[in-house]
Specification:
11-stranded mixed sheet, Peptide/Ni-bd, 19 helices, ABC transporter substrate-binding protein, alpha+beta, single chain, SBP_5, 4-stranded antiparallel sheet, 21 strands, SBP_5_dom, 23% strand, globular
């Protein structure tokens, strides 16, 4: 008989849920080994960590949301329909009538307006996402209003309604049971302290137990409006060491291990364990600072695209961790441009440099985070670029050292990665395709400004136009065209998109892990 290695996990399994406790993981309960000590807050108005994002997604709903059935589609959530008025800068939502909080309270329009206003008034870390809409503590009650079963959202700024909808699909826009939350208000905190230990959502799971850095237990919500989860519940057991996670999985004491290293993934040998790979939102790139004269000719940028050994790296040093992707918006989300026209071709690169009259060799310092796989990637780039006379001098540093140089624009070449703040293509377009003021005192947290690339005004205008375009399909096509342009004409060479591997028992199916922690869904999981 299988034995559990954690007394805490054993006690959690003994809690009544849908049937008697078993010595092995019960058929209706998914047991996950995961490092969950990153959690600082679970209140949706404050939660900003990876694991807390997963919890918020499974405990709460939003007016509109990406969901387990297809994480690439923005679907109705607590709203069944909405009407947009781009000219008046309003979106009016009609709420569904069958949504119920875990407390038993009906989801009301007042819960929606109160939840959104609460984020702005508390002004915790993720509040900036909603504040983009022009909301302030003084104005939000006038800009987010309700009447009967409808909620009207007003926003300021030249935004496409599609952009606004994606903002409203972000984590801090989760709707809480305001009646329950405000019952637990302390010293004007709008229930923040209580909601960081409890939950008050309407999502597919309710929170049954939360012990920071130890364990989270969720119970299926049988009344969920999209259908009850297929499992009775799940346990996220804190297991910090990847080796221990592997041991528990191989012994059958857990159903899933979330933090195995590539080497451990490769060493799994049991026929009863499978590994699933999920694309992630982070894109990895090589960039050239335009303050370095030898790196300013566009021919250098073009040649560089043929000097990355994409396949060589994905078949070895980043196997399972990254896949080839050459555009700034990650694959798997609306508006992505998934063409990969560049491959390792040093002869073509040398021809491009020769025809442009570029004298080689060129010596360039390359800043890189001193950790795997980045140092290995830098060494691969050093070897492949040397074939065309571009010689990298690798400068390893801590993450803070590398990023500080990047923000100061004092690097020459940089190997780094970028992830969106929320799932709208503008989040990355503004970083990779927009820079209207390249002066040193006009700091912007973008790859373009940090690499001192004065983006051509035509491309700046394309970025502004896509942000304001009201036709959703036309808007996505504009972003694809923008990605194609930057793929061809930018000193920023996007190479890869991160991947995430999850090992699980072969009898587990239906697990969905989208491109960010906000897209981890357990509702469709089954154990056969």
């Amino acid at each position: 008989m299988k034995t559990l290695k954690s007394a805490l996990l054993a006690s959690a399994l003994a809690l009544p849920l849908a049937g008697p406790a078993l010595a092995e993981t019960p058929a209706g309960l998914l047991v996950v080994a995961q490092n969950i000590d990153d959690i600082v807050a679970i209140d949706p108005a404050q939660a900003y960590e990876f694991t807390s994002g997963e919890l918020v997604t499974n405990l709460y709903d939003r007016l509109v949301q990406y969901d387990a059935e297809d994480p690439t589609v923005l679907a109705p959530g607590l709203a069944t329909e909405w009407e947009t008025d781009a000219e008046a800068k309003t979106i009016t939502f009609t709420l569904r009538e069958d949504a119920v909080f875990h407390s038993g309270n009906l989801v009301r329009a007042e819960d929606v307006t109160g939840s959104l206003a609460r984020v702005i008034k508390l002004d915790k870390t993720p509040a900036f996402i909603l504040a983009q809409l022009g909301w302030t503590p003084e104005t939000v009650d006038e800009m987010v209003t309700s009447e009967g079963n409808t909620v009207t959202i007003r926003y300021e700024g030249e935004f496409s309604p599609a952009f606004v909808l994606n903002v409203l699909a972000a984590r801090p826009a989760s709707i809480v049971d305001m009646a329950t939350v405000m019952e637990h208000e302390t010293d004007g905190d709008m229930g923040n302290a209580w909601l960081n230990e409890n939950a008050a959502g309407s999502g597919p799971f309710s929170l049954q137990m939360y012990r920071p850095a130890e364990l989270v237990r969720l119970k299926a919500n049988p009344d969920y409006f999209k259908g009850a989860p297929k499992i009775d519940g799940l346990i996220l057991q804190h297991v910090a060491e990847a080796a221990t996670q592997q041991l528990l999985l191989e012994q059958g004491d857990v159903d899933m291990a979330r933090n195995l290293t590539p080497d451990q993934i490769a060493s799994l040998s049991s026929d009863e364990i499978k590994v699933e790979t999920f694309p992630q939102a982070a894109v990895h790139f090589l960039s050239f600072n335009q303050k370095t004269e030898s790196l300013t000719p566009p021919a250098v940028w073009e040649a560089a695209r043929y000097l990355v050994d994409y396949t060589g790296m994905t078949d070895s040093i980043v196997d399972g961790q990254m896949e080839i992707h050459q555009a700034f918006w990650p694959k798997g989300f609306p508006g992505s441009y998934d063409e990969t026209p560049y491959s390792y071709d040093p002869e073509k690169a040398k021809q491009i440099l020769d025809e442009a009259g570029i004298e080689t060799p060129i010596t360039v310092s390359l800043d890189v985070i001193n950790a795997a796989p980045f140092t290995d990637m830098a060494q691969s780039l050093q070897a492949s670029f040397a074939d065309a006379g571009i010689n990298f001098e690798i400068l390893p540093g801590t993450g803070s050292q590398v990023i500080t140089k990047y923000r100061e624009r004092s690097h020459e070449a940089m190997l780094l990665y970028w992830g969106p703040d929320f799932m709208d293509p503008h989040s990355n377009a503004k970083a990779f395709a927009y820079n209207s003021d390249n002066s040193d005192d006009a700091y912007a947290a973008t790859t373009t400004w940090r690499n001192a690339w004065a983006v051509p005004e035509e491309m700046n205008e394309m970025t502004r136009a896509a942000l304001t375009e009201s036709d959703p399909e036309k808007r996505l096509e504009m972003y694809r065209e923008l990605q194609k342009r930057t793929q061809e004409e930018s000193p920023i060479v996007v190479m890869f998109q991160a991947s995430y591997q999850v090992a699980m028992d072969d009898d587990v199916s239906g697990y969905v892990n989208g491109a960010t922690s906000d897209f981890v869904f357990y509702r469709l999981v089954e154990k056969n």
